């Protein structure tokens, strides 16, 4: 059994003391930022990127992955307790979870979310281990034309998730692709759009964009709003365990949520957010006569979406690990982290760095186990953290972002660039332009150009190559279908409805 | 002509202008042909596409009615200028003043951007964050960042 020996190698790597510590650190930090609204995994991983220069590749990626799934756990805690979703994917959890908490059933809600997520995380890990190798085989059949089409599909998939207008989201992708063009052309060696500034010929660091737009831009936007009034109505959570009835009602939802999340997570651009929305809709359809109506504290409304978003978070590693193509902004940062460590992301990672590949997968399971053990007793502490006033929190974020950008190249140029992107980020916020597609476009831009130009060279300038090669054509058709589906009036209104529940 | 959606109007204009700028800028580089695409090939195409989409957003903003005109709202000048100013100052000051002086400066200026500013809070925050940053970045991660001001070292 290849799967078993691979997993054995993975656990052998993941269970070293050093890697366990980084996994624990990442999971803890992830939970922390998940609990704190306004500080997401994207900004945190961006902040931590400079620090991974000092680490080996495997512990670095294990830690970053821990932050990602830790954030999914932490986000649901605040969603349930104070109706403030720490993460966009836990927006749905807040609907029924907060109602349960108000009825004094916070413990049951938190336990359902935690146990559901754990189950989903375990299944997700097995799915990655089972499906990554065959997908990698497929990836070796990919030529430049297929890669280009796959990236088109991935970018279109990302658009489906942006909450605003479709055209604006596509425009943001293009803007990101264009920002990625500020570099030295790989093929001819010509510096482009650099205005003779030597620092620009290497391209803008994506950490600079991520920190400027997501970190600083959001701080400015937050400070521009009147201080929000958060109401914490419970100081300690009593009655941690759900009743027998709760269990009976929750487990089918967990199964449904896990299945749905695992599938949606693999799709480029799908991921955790879409999975949790879809699961909530499914639960409303599947449970005919709920004991407690949906929206009034139904445990199915917590267990389903929470399992779905964790399963989705897990399986969204598949396109990143097998194809080197990030399905969301967090994965884009992970790809960046691999590049920093000198690993070219793509199908060859599994054979060239098997310890990294399988160690990362095994560490996800270990991390999920740690999270469930950590989270239930720690809930009380997380709540206390929420009482740290924002006026202490934002100077801390500013400080860490500043030191982080400076240490990228040990010069002040990146700091100034970050300041510029802080302004840009605020402009995006004011114009309701979602910045996540921009970051994805920026990451994929140079890869897309290289593959496009290589495909055209091979076909002697014939654009038809993208439609005559079957795999490539299939991917483009899928991308087109996605656009059509989103444009369809009935789905369009549903999509808006789903996002209005925020 | 009346603007029906403020936010879309300005974002459309932004996309249009940036698209044109990139397409125009890329004419400086060799375009090549489809069979041998040069460095200007991809950015030119993207720029044109972005300009077209920007024009479409602009057109929609002028024709399709939106709720309440979708106003941009007031710009938060105070946090915007203070935070951006604080970052710029950090970049300027760090090589000369070192971490121990730059961080308190940074924290004070950025704290001014908040709704409530208390001297004691900012002071407490600077002490905690400066020591914390030293522990994490200098002692823990061994980053090469100037810690002390240059006039003290020499």
Automatic annotation (TrEMBL), chain A:
Parts of the chain that traverse the membrane: 20-40, 52-71, 108-132, 152-179, 200-221, 259-282, 317-337, 357-383, 390-408, 420-445, 466-488
Keywords: Membrane, Transmembrane, Transmembrane helix
Residues of the DUF112 domain: 20-440
InterPro entries on file: DUF112_TM
Pfam families from the UniProt entry: TctA
Name by which UniProt lists this protein: Tripartite tricarboxylate transporter permease
N-terminal signal peptide: none
